[in-house]
Amino acid sequence: DAKTTQPNSMESNEEEPVHLPCNHSTISGTDYIHWYRQLPSQGPEYVIHGLTSNVNNRMASLAIAEDRKSSTLILHRATLRDAAVYYCILRDSRITGYQKVTFGIGTKLQVIP
Amino acid sequence: SQTIHQWPATLVQPVGSPLSLECTVEGTSNPNLYWYRQAAGRGLQLLFYSVGIGQISSEVPQNLSASRPQDRQFILSSKKLLLSDSGFYLCAWSGLDISSGNTIYFGEGSWLTVV
Q1: So what's the pLDDT on residue A45?
Q2: Looking at beta carbons, which residues of chain A come within 8 Å of B108?
Q3: Could you tell me the end-to-end alpha-carbon distance of chain A, in angstroms, rounded to an integer?
C-alpha cells in the first residue's frame, strides 16, 4: 500500500489559515487522496478527497501538487473546534472490495486562542 | 443517507470476561466492513475486514474474533479479555461507489477498559 508522511504536530492561531502538508511520493495514477480528521474521543470523519484537481467543500480545501506527490489540506479560518488529528491516506479507485490502508499517526493540530 | 452505529460506547470489563461489540450500517447494501483499534496516542490498527456475509479476514493475530451474521452487521468478540485488549475500537464501512473515491466512514467508537 502506498504510504503517506505527515508532520506529527502543528500549531495555528485561531481564525488564521492552516496548511497541513502530506507527502505521497509513491502515489499511483488511480489513487485518490483522502483526508480525515479525528476529534478527541471520536471516530475519524471524512473531510475531503481528490484525484488531480484542487477541491473545495464546506469543511476545507485540498490543493494537489501537479506531480501528485504531495498535497495540502487548507483550513481557511481555524477555529478551536478544528483542533484534531488529521490523517492523509490514499485509496485506490480501482478496488471496490477491501484494500489495505494504513492510517499513520497523522498530524495533531493545536489551535491557539 | 447512510449511517453507522456501534455500541456500547464505553465498557469496563474484568480480565477473562467475554466481549461483544456490535456495529450496524444503514442506508447501503453489501458494504465493506472494518474493525479498527486505537491505543492511547497511537494510530489506527486494522483488526478485521469483511467483504460479505460470513467472510472475515484478520489483519493481525490476536485474542479477538469477528463475525458478520447479516449484510450490515459486524460483531467483534472475545471469549476471554486480556489487559492488552484495552483501547478505543472503531467500526467502519466503505461502499462500492467509485465516484466517492472509496471513502471510509467510521462509527462513534467504543472505549474498552479491561481491569
Answers
A1: 93
A2: 42-43
A3: 38
